[in-house]
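Subject: design request, 289 residues
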């Protein structure tokens, strides 16, 4: 399957899915389509992920022709197995590539995928989406050199998604780093994140807002984001590992990281005191939009 990033009118990104079943990223890039928070936030309070919850953000630049394909990159070698487990659906949440000048920072998966036999059976357990820990999430810097995207550095993070146990239906949680200043921040294990140098990929520090010990029950959940001062924000959830989706979370936090690595955090229970613990209403499948 080709995963083709294209730009149309007013720089809006469009995604096409031709019928081939090899997953490639065809990157159509416009210089200036920079996702660096420092450059974008002069005109928007939320410059990433479409600017706001309605995704009304756009760039006032001319897009590449829709047929333009500048590079072909295989970043997930497991798509045929992943699709077999879900009856033909690709249930991944892939990182949005981050563009800064001639550099493209994006996810590449390595490691191994343990298929179920038969696919979708969940047996022998753990397998398929219940065995995400055998895969490795890498952040890779690709750079335009002589008209080609060339790999400059690669960082294999120890981040893993929250265990699945099929409650998620096989949907893989999001892995999304963020650019700010000269750094790129990448999710890590135990509720930590890594601060990397954008140019070399060198690890400048592993930031742990919970102390010095990594807790395997804590997970970076959702994407990282940044403000125009270079502060990074992200969510951490702590789960019961044996039954992560059949038990309430142990705790959850909103974390703020400053450029020097200092951290502060607040629990979601303190942000939302007396939040309801039961559904306020129900609706049938026929009422779905």
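Subject: RE: design request

Done. Sequence follows.
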């Amino acid at each position: 399957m080709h995963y083709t990033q294209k730009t149309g009118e007013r720089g809006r990104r469009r995604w096409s899915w031709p019928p081939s079943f090899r997953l490639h990223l065809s990157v159509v890039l416009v210089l200036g389509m920079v996702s660096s928070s420092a450059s974008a936030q002069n005109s928007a309070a939320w410059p990433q992920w479409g600017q706001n919850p309605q995704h009304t953000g756009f760039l006032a630049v001319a897009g590449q022709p829709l047929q333009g394909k500048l590079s072909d990159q295989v970043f997930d070698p497991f798509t045929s197995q992943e699709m077999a487990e879900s009856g033909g659906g690709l249930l991944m949440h892939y990182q949005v590539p981050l563009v800064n000048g001639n550099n493209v920072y994006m996810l590449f998966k390595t490691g191994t995928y343990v298929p179920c036999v038969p696919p979708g059976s969940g047996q022998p357990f753990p397998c398929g989406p219940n065995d995400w820990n055998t895969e490795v999430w890498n952040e890779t810097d690709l750079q335009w050199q002589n008209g080609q995207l060339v790999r400059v550095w690669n960082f294999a993070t120890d981040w893993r998604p929250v265990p699945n146990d099929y409650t998620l239906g096989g949907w893989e949680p999001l892995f999304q780093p963020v650019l700010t200043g000269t750094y790129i921040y990448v999710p890590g294990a135990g509720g930590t994140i890594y601060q990397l140098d954008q140019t070399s990929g060198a690890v400048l520090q592993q930031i742990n807002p919970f102390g010095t010990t990594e807790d395997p029950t804590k997970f970076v959940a959702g994407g990282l984001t940044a403000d125009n001062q270079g502060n990074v924000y992200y969510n951490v959830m702590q789960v019961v590992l044996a039954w992560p989706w059949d038990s309430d979370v142990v705790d959850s936090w909103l974390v703020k990281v400053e450029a020097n690595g200092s951290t502060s955090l607040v629990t979601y229970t303190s942000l939302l005191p007396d939040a309801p613990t039961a559904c306020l209403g129900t609706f049938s499948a026929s009422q779905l939009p």
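The chain has one domain: 2-275.
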